[in-house]
């Protein structure tokens, strides 16, 4: 074994590095093809809404955007009109293809009902065609009442450090409502320290954290696509990254997202423990955007951004999107 290794090293000495780079690509290619093929065929990027689960996922994503809009700290009327149109079309399509009984799609229609009421009581007049389409949809799905997003207050966070896990986990929410009170760095230190017991493959601990504060938050959040309407109130912006230096085989190419995801979840729980309102922010960006933010925050090239988290102390009163979960039977299968 030792002999084979030294022969390999000897060959490497005489063969140019560029050639080796070709060998590495050759090794990686089957994995890239496998990942890409799975993504192309199974995701909703290309074969759009060609299955029940894809259409439903799209409906959930869109209705969540409306329930978020209803819950925004400074709600503007009207909002989300393009989302509304697509959501109405998709709910109609779902009904025609798969029936009118699904819990998540009924929730979508109930949220459309709440959206309709919120707009109407704020003096917005829907055009006759849209009004007719909405009323027909409520009728088709037998929706007689609307949802009502949750009205909460800062007491929600007052005892998080002493709750048993059932209640602690049950009270964790993505909160987008932050007060002006400054979050001291030592609270962030404590939260990140607490989160360091996250599990990682072979205990490689690839997670890193960058904390942005003050004016710089605006500059960084300009690159993120999901913080409109609340990002400007962020008191501390937490950037979770994963260092890929420790992964040593193409089979491990996706482990960083698992390790980084587990680390992120631990951070969210830790922020909750310390009474902070926090919201995960997707980092689904083009390579150039990734490079730009790396530059601003001095993040080394060996790290990839996994997630951003906006946080601050919670507002006295706030409205929280319902974010209805799937029922257990949809998620859990004994094999
Ligand atoms: C990876 C990830 C990315 C997310 N990105 C955003 C985002 O960009 N903007 C946002 O407002 N919420 C974002 N969220 C929060 C989700 O909308 C939220 O977790 C979901 O609706 C469930 O609600 P809950 O966290 O309050 O239980 C994200 C959550 C995750 C896990």
UniProtKB/TrEMBL annotation:
Residues 172-219, 237-313 form the Nitroreductase domain. Its cofactor is FMN. Gene3D superfamilies: NADH Oxidase. GO terms for molecular function: oxidoreductase activity. InterPro entries: Nitroreductase (IPR029479), Nitroreductase-like (IPR000415). The keyword Transferase does not apply. Keywords: Flavoprotein, FMN, Oxidoreductase. Belongs to the nitroreductase family. PANTHER family: NAD(P)H NITROREDUCTASE YDGI-RELATED (PTHR43673), NITROREDUCTASE (PTHR43673:SF2). This is Nitroreductase domain-containing protein. It comes from Sphingobacterium alkalisoli.
């Amino acid at each position: 074994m030792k002999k084979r290794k030294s022969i390999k090293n000897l060959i490497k000495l005489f063969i140019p590095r560029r050639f080796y780079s070709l060998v590495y690509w050759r090794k990686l290619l089957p994995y890239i093809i496998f990942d890409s093929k799975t993504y192309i065929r199974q995701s909703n990027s290309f074969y759009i809404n060609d299955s029940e689960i894809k259409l439903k996922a799209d409906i959930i994503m869109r209705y969540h955007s409306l329930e978020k809009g209803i819950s925004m700290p400074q709600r503007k009327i009207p909002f989300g009109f393009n989302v509304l149109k697509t959501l109405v079309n998709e709910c109609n399509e779902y009904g025609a293809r798969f029936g009118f009984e699904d819990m998540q799609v009924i929730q979508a229609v109930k949220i459309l009902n709440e959206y309709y009421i919120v707009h109407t009581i704020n003096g917005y007049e829907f055009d006759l065609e849209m009004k007719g389409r909405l009323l027909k949809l409520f009728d088709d799905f037998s929706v007689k009442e609307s949802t009502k997003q949750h009205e909460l207050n800062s007491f929600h966070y007052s005892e998080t450090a002493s709750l048993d896990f059932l209640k602690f986990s049950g009270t964790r929410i993505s909160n987008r409502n932050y007060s002006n009170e400054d979050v001291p760095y030592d609270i962030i230190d404590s939260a990140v320290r607490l989160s360091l017991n996250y599990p990682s493959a072979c205990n490689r601990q690839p997670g890193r954290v960058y904390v942005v504060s003050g004016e710089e938050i605006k500059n960084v959040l300009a690159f993120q696509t999901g913080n409109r309407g609340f990002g400007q109130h962020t008191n501390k912006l937490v950037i979770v990254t994963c260092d890929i230096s420790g992964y040593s085989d193409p089979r491990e190419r996706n482990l960083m997202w698992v390790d980084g995801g587990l680390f992120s979840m631990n951070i969210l729980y830790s922020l909750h423990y310390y009474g902070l309102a926090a919201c995960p922010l997707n980092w689904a960006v083009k390579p150039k955007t990734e490079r730009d933010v790396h530059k601003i925050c001095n993040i080394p090239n060996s790290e990839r951004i996994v997630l951003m988290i906006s946080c601050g102390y919670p507002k006295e009163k706030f409205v929280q999107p319902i974010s209805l979960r799937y029922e257990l039977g949809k998620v859990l299968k004994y094999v």
